[in-house]
Each structure stands twice: as structure tokens, then as C-alpha cells.
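Quick entry between incubations.
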Amino acid sequence: MKYSQVRVLAGKGGAADHFSEALRGLAVDRRDSVYAAGDQEIKVFESGGRLARRWRTAMPGFAVAVAGDGRVFCGQPGQVEIFDGAGRLQAAWRDEQRLGLVTAIGFSTGNVFLADATGRCIRRYDGSGKYLNDIGNDNRMKGFLIPNGAVSFGVDAKGVIHSANPGKHRVERYTAGGALLGHFGRFDGRDPAGFSGCCNPTNVAVTGGSRIWVTEKAGPRAKVYDAEGALLAVIASDVFDPNCKNMSIAAGSRGQVYVADTVKLQIFVFEPLGGQGGAA
Amino acid sequence: MSDQTTRRGALARAARGAAALALGGSAFYLVRKADGQIVWNVDSARCINSRLGVTNVEACNLCTTECVVPLSAVRAVNEYSKCGRCYICPAYFNITSAVDEKGLPSEKLCPRDAIERKPIGDIDPDDPANNFYEYIIDEVKCDGCGKCVMACKEPLGLGSIVLRVRHSLCVDCNRCAISTACPKDAILQVPIEKAFDHVQLGSHD
Amino acid sequence: MKSRASTLLAAAAGLILLFAVNAAGQAMQYERPVQAAPQEEGIGGSYKTPAVQKPQPRSYWLEVLDVVLMAVAMGISVWVVLRRRSRKWVLALTVACLGYFGFYREGCICPIGSIQNVSVALTDPGYAIPIVVTAVFFLPLLVALFFGRAFCGGVCPLGALQELVLLKPLRVPRRLDRALGLLRYAYLGGAVWLALQPFPVHDFIICRFDPFVGFFRMAGFAHMLYIGAAFLVLGIFVGRPYCRFLCPYGVLLEWVTRLAGRGVSITPDKELDCGLCQESCPYGAIEKMRVVRPKCLYCARCFESCPREGPLARKR
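Done. Structure below.
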């Protein structure tokens, strides 16, 4: 399977649809609108690429996610802000003693999962913001190994959490209760099917039940695996700035992929050639 | 004694006094300004091997080749508190070499084999990936070639390995030969108190 | 009073600024950052972070000791040459200083090279040199102001090395001597100019082309060792070629020595007019039976050759 770059959104600069300092989180909603958290703002791009809305967040956003009901969650240092689709603030969750820097957000029925990079684990809350349990830190290493400084995961249609454990060069599968189901991935600096460098993959996204999208740093690349961990495609590598790190990745309904270049502050949009890569 | 000799003597004394005053004055000025003990130091924020933004290039090894001390006085130092303790350290392994049967890169990066790797903490004997590792640089073997520094820097690593002047070996040349050759003017003289400040490197979050 | 008020005002402004910055920082502040590098409590198993090696330079007090030793050596040089008038003692001092300042301290710091540092420190407000360097630069000049070039005789390791290889001194014709001596001014001027230039032209050529430091360190670049060897071979026949034709510090010493009250003199009360002393001086520093003090390098050869006071006289 091959992908081709079809569009570039945002960029570095002062324009309304550009970011000036940082681009950290990406999400896609059901209508294929792209939500990007960067600087201290969330920007929403329509599927055609036009900037539709943007609004400020209380603190710099490190993650953004769109819930089934259309609410927009933005992960920040020590808190999550929840907005309606138009960008009006609905709530802010703080969990003073527990929650650190939120670098990824995911949902399953009745659950909200927050990746806590400070605690090197995933925190599970219910829909009202009540803490339930931790995922990924009941082990010898007391959490994920993240020399890259971010925890990233995706939740599949069955509610299984697929989390990057970059220090181990693995993608691990957890239940909502925190039980480790299994993992795939291994180090390999030559074979693109392996994960290279000290700590990869840095970011993970999941669509449906069968596609696991990952990005790596140094050298930066985006790849897609099936649920068993077989490499389906290297989506792109050369287009990203070589100093990129923790590139957020998101996939849309037609199998199109969005990757955030953290240096050029651009969002690259890729589509599968021949339309064979629909999200299952 | 004739008038002339006394006059000449007085003149000579005056000239000597003036010269002494001039010398003393400039010495006094310099002493007032003095900064204590000054040593040569690597400014990691300037060093090509440590700096962000320089990627996919060979490590600069001028610190090895230019130093007047046979085995350079500049050596790599691992700032342990900033080390990621990775299972696969790009500064220890040649991460582009073929993977061996244990799943590790088959080659090491250091040409002098100066880095030692050992698991630390509560060691898990069953899963080697489930451990933290300490990377200790043998300061006697290291010649400051900068390969590991280049491999450890952001975004590949955390930049915990930097080049440092080993002041016990540095002969304190007036014009450090490395500093003359350094393309980024990264070898500078600083007061000794500042020589061990670890420079905070920039990062992309 | 006025200055005090303005100081207070400045302090108040500074405080306000500090608060403003703090207040702005507060909104952004976050006390629990991500630790990309695992620390002791995360690693567990009673792990302790090893201390990072911090090799210290030579103690400051040892450097001060170097200055003191240099001062003492110059004192001995003055005493041995002006009072004892003994070549043997000068040789002993020469060997001792060559060993200590040359081979043990590896030729650094030296007043010759410090010309550059002093030049920069005097002109660049952002550049300072340690007190030790200031002392090393000014002490020999101060001594020269009263007694002449006592530093050159036996103390300077570069001079000492050349002094010891001078086995078959040939006379350099006076005019050639004078002409070659002009090189020193060019070298001094060029070195100061280059030292004052901003990076990357900035250079300390005196040190870069120091002919003998390579021998002192038993290591160095090939070009330095070749230059040094050439000077030493030449120095077998020509007295101290580096000192007389290149040394930029010699220029400064010469200027200061012109004002000196005392210095080497040849047996003023027992002159023989035999001219043996003049013959013996390998540096052309005796003209018409009188010492040309700015050129005298405190080697005491003239005393040695004198039939009135040298070994010849003592044997008699």
C-alpha cells in the first residue's frame, strides 16, 4: 500500500491558520474536520482545508480529541478543558494530586482516558470526570518508558487501548481496567517494520479495529500497522523536518492520514493511492 | 659631581618613576577587572555535536585532532541525571547496524569502545527491555571524537552526553588550538565556577 | 543625595518588573513537568545516580606559587649576575628554570604570550585576565625597570633552552643583527593586531608559533616541532636567535631597560681594555667596552672571560 501527500494545512507564521510556536495535537471528527492544538489555541480545519474556527485555551494544548457527542477535549499541563463544538468552554477537569501533563485523550463507552506524561501512565475517568483507575503503571518500570516526554495511545472500537511504549519499542494493548493484553513491535534500525532509535514509536492512533497508525522520531516517519502488528505501509518520511519529535497522527473516515510536523508546524495530509486503504 | 650629572640623574629618576606608574597603573586596572581563575570550556549550546538543527552529518572531531595533548583533553561526559537510561542507546549502539539474535544492534558506535552499558535498578532478568541502563564513559579511553555526543542529542536522544574539557589534562594553552579550529567558536574561556554548568539545550518540547 | 534617590528608583522599577514577570509566569507555571530522564525514585532498586566527573584544574594557589617562584628566580638572577658575577650560578639557575617553567610547567603561562591577553584585556571591556597572568606579564618589566633584563637570563624557559645549546657562538655582523632585530617589532605589532581582531580573524600567533613549547610538552604539531628544531640547530652557532630576532616581549623589556638605573657593568674599576669580554658576548651587547644594557641578556659570559675576575683570575 502506498500513500501520497494531497494537502498541507497550517504552517509557521502569524496568519490565522498558522501556528507561531508549536503544533502538538491532532484529532479528526466524524465529518473529517481536523482539530489542531498548538501554541495556546485550537484551530478547526474543514475537510477541504479551510480554517473554520479557532479559540484560545487556558494553557498550551498538548492533545486534542473529539468525543462521540462532538465535545472537544484539550489536554494541557495538569488539566483538561472541555469545549462544545463551537469552542465554548463547558468544563475543566483538574485532578490536582494525580493528573500531570496530558498528552493524549481517548474515549470508550462511559470512559475518558487521559495520557499522563508526568505519571508515565494513562488515567481512566468516567464521563463526569470521576477517577477510576490507572493503566500502564502496574509494572516494574512504574509506567511507560518515555524519554521522548509524551504518552500516546488510541482506543479501538472494542474499547481496547493501544499505547506506545517507546523505550521498549512496542505498542501495548490494555483493557480499560489496566490489564496488559499483549504487544507488538521490536527494535530494528534497518527494517522499516521495526521501530528505530532509542525510543519509538512516539505517537499512536487507532481507527476502527484494524488500523494502528504510528509516528517515529529521528528520523521522523509515519507508518500504519494492522491489529496483529504487521506493517501495512510507510506513509511518509522525507517530508518531515528531521528534528521533528512527537508528531501527532490522526486518520479520517476515508483512510486519509494527518500528521503534524512539529518543527515546520504544518499538518500533512496523505491519502492511500487507489483508494484501497479505507478505515475498517 | 657636576650639575649635568645630577640633572641627568634626576631626569632618569623621573622617567623611571613615570614608567613605573604607567606599568603599575595598567596592572592595577587589570587586577580590578580580574575574574579569578579562567579555564577553557566547551559551550554545548554552540558545539555542532550537541546543538539542535544539525542532523544527518558526520560528527565534528576537531576536539580530537586539534588538541595539543596526545589523547585530547576534551572528553565526552554523560550527565547521568539527564540520561534517558534507554534500553537501546543510540550513543552506545550503532543503531543502523544489523540486529543480532538478541534483538540488539550488532555494532557499537564508539570507535574506542569507551562506553560501558549495564542494567540498573530492580533488574528484570527475563525481559532485557524491561530495565533501565546506565551508560558510563571511560574517561581514560575517550578521545572526544564526538560521535556519541552527536548520537545522543535531541531529537534522537536527550543530549545528556556532552563534550567537556578535562581540566586536569588541559594544559591551558593561551590560545587553545581547538578553539582556533572550532567552526562555531564553541571553546571559550570561562571562570572556573562556571565550567561545570550543564548548558540547557533547546528542545522541541 | 541625588544619586541615592535614583538608585532607589531603579531598585523600585526593578522590583515592579520582577513582579510583572512573575505574574505573567504564574498563569503558565506548572510544577509537575514531565521527566524524560528517569531519576533515582523511578529507577528503584536502591539505585544512586553516580556523580559526574568534574576534573579540577591545577589549584589556584599552585599558580600563585608559580608567580612567586618566577619572582624569586628573577631575584636570584639579579643577585647572581650583579653581585656574585658568576656564570656557574647563572647556569645552575638556567637549568633549574628550564626544568620547572619549561618541562614541568610546560612553558605556560609565560610573559611572552601574555602580551596578547594583556592587549585584549586592556582594550576589550568584556575580557578579563586572572591576576596571575597580570603578575606574570608585569613582574619582569618591573624588574627590568630597575635592573635590566634579569628575566631573560636564566628565568625564561625559551631563553634557557637556547642558552644551553649555544656551543659555538659565531659573531653576527652588527648591521645584520640590527636588521634582523627589526623583525621583533613586526612580530609584536602583528601579534597585538591579530589578538585585538574579532573572531574569526582573532588569533594568538605568539603561542601558535611558539618554537619550543612542543619540546616542553613532548608533543605538538609537526610544524611547531620543525620550527623549534631549526631554532635549536641555528642556536648552536648564533646566540639565542629567537630572543634577539623574534621575541616580542624582548622589545618591551628593551624599552623599559633603557630607563633602568642599574644593570650589568664590566668591572668598571679594573678595566684592561683587552676586549676579551666584548669577544665573549654572543649577543653583541658589549660595544666599546661598555654594556649595552637593553641588549644584555644576563648570561654572565663576560665575567667568565675576564682575566681580572673570571676563573682565569681565580686560577692565578
